[in-house]
Amino acid sequence: MQHGDSSPAITGHSAAEIAESVRGLIERGALAPGAALPSVRALAESLGVNRNTAVAAYRQLAQAGLVVTLGRAGTHVADRATLAQDGFAADSVLRDVGTGNPDPRLIPDMSAALTALAGRPVLYGEPVIDAGLAERARAWLGDDVASPDEMRLTVTSGAFDAVERLLAQALTRDDAVAVEDPCFLATIRTVRLAGYRPVAVPVDEEGMTPDGLRAALAEGVRAVVCTPRAQNPTGASLSARRAAELRAILAEHPYVLVIEDDHFSLLSRHPYHSIIGPEHRRWALVRSVSKFLGPDMCLAVTASDAETAERLAMRLSPGTTWVSHLLQRLALALLTDSAALDTIERAGEHYAERNRSFAERLRRHGIDTAPLDGLSLWVRLPLPARTVSERLMRRGWLARTGDDFALSRGGAASHHLRLTVHGLDDANAETLAADLAAACAQRG
Asked: Taking every annotated instance into account, which residue ranges of this chain make up the domain HTH gntR-type (predicted)?
């Protein structure tokens, strides 16, 4: 097939042959990253094959990570560049204020808990969730779900292990899923690498917007991923009013899977408000321990309806994909230790205070920023963030621009920086605020 005057030819009569033809063109460099492929209809007509054959070919390519489906924007050759990830930038001599990391000094000391972990070995076929952790989790999550008597618990290796498994048991490739925009980096990776079609739902200071959710549901999304508190990167938390609006909208779609990732939970300074109503049939509330017990504690607890829990459990085989009971016991020991809980409470106050303090510094320098919730600040700029970021680099700072978090901006550059400032002392915080203001004011 020849599409366009200079586009390479795609050939084949079966789905496998068509997929292999496209793969070869990509490998030879004839189709570059980002290149648009013909529509399913155009491809089928040109090759004289059934439309379903073209769909199957593109699905095979998507499963191999070679193409991405962007809804109305069509199918494109995947960008093979590594997707952005949170954490420290590698090999940089600059002061990194884009990490999104918690303060290691405010992660509870695990040494005493580790020495008390001895117990009988856990063998194949035993329950995948430790009995003590299950009891603690029921108290931790039970008060925040609409039907606590009907909820089921599952343990996974962190929040996004849970989200990935939850989506996998409910969706197939090319299914649409509603995600926040701007979006948490792990969400972007999970959705894109699995071959789902992300539908962007704008976020404001109260969380997901009602109009955005309505539009996503009208596009036929089969799942919604929502952050009720400390949305990353914006820091937004759902207000009671906004949560009620979203619940009313979702009431007409009770079988759409709603996943709430309450990643900041014990650290949040905001109350928890859910978008999951009492009559909703497919739902999950995920709470991980990574933000307050440390990223290396890869553990999350999920409360969900019985059917979702059963499907999720099928993907967690005892002895192969379960979460270590030693890790579960360690999490339980810390979650029930008064000293550890005091440290977590101090950490939450520290993050909130340092964000408030830095936002006030920015306001004094003419940059209005709302200190919402979370580990970082979402700073609105008067010019493109990449320009400001480059100017900050010349002043010794490494910041993360909002471009990494954007799902749909119509080709426009982001005007936001996400700054992680809670580790700066007052002197360095003032220097950064002044440097940021200077970078914004610089001409040319």
From this structure: 12-80
**Cβ contact 173:150 at 8 Å:** no
Phi/psi of residue 42, nearest 5 degrees: -65, -40
Q: How far apart are the first and last CA of the chain?
A: 47
Write down the CATH number for the domain with range 15-77: 1.10.10.10
Tracing tokens 């999920």 back to the chain, one arrives at 302
Tokens for 82, please give them.
Answer: 């590594």
Average confidence (pLDDT) per 10 residues, the chain, 444 residues: 58 93 91 90 93 89 76 77 67 90 96 85 86 95 91 93 92 89 88 84 97 97 98 97 98 98 97 97 97 95 94 69 90 96 98 98 96 97 96 96 80 90 97 98 81
Domain residue ranges in the chain = 15-77, 95-104+340-441, 120-335
Helical residues (DSSP H) of 75-178, grouped into ranges: 111-115, 131-142, 159-168
Output DSSP code: residue 36.
B
Tell me how far CA of residue 181 lies from CA of 131, 259, 392, 405, in angstroms: 38, 16, 25, 7
Which has the closest alpha carbon to 183: 441, 418, 411?
A: 418
Q: Looking at domain 120-335, does it have CATH number 3.40.50.2000?
A: no
Nearest to 290 by CA among 121, 444, 100, 144: 100
List the strands of the sheet with 416-419, edge to edge: 377-380, 416-419, 400-401
CATH of domain 95-104+340-441: 3.90.1150.10
Give yes or no for a contact between 264 and 102, defined as CB atoms under 8 angstroms apart.
no
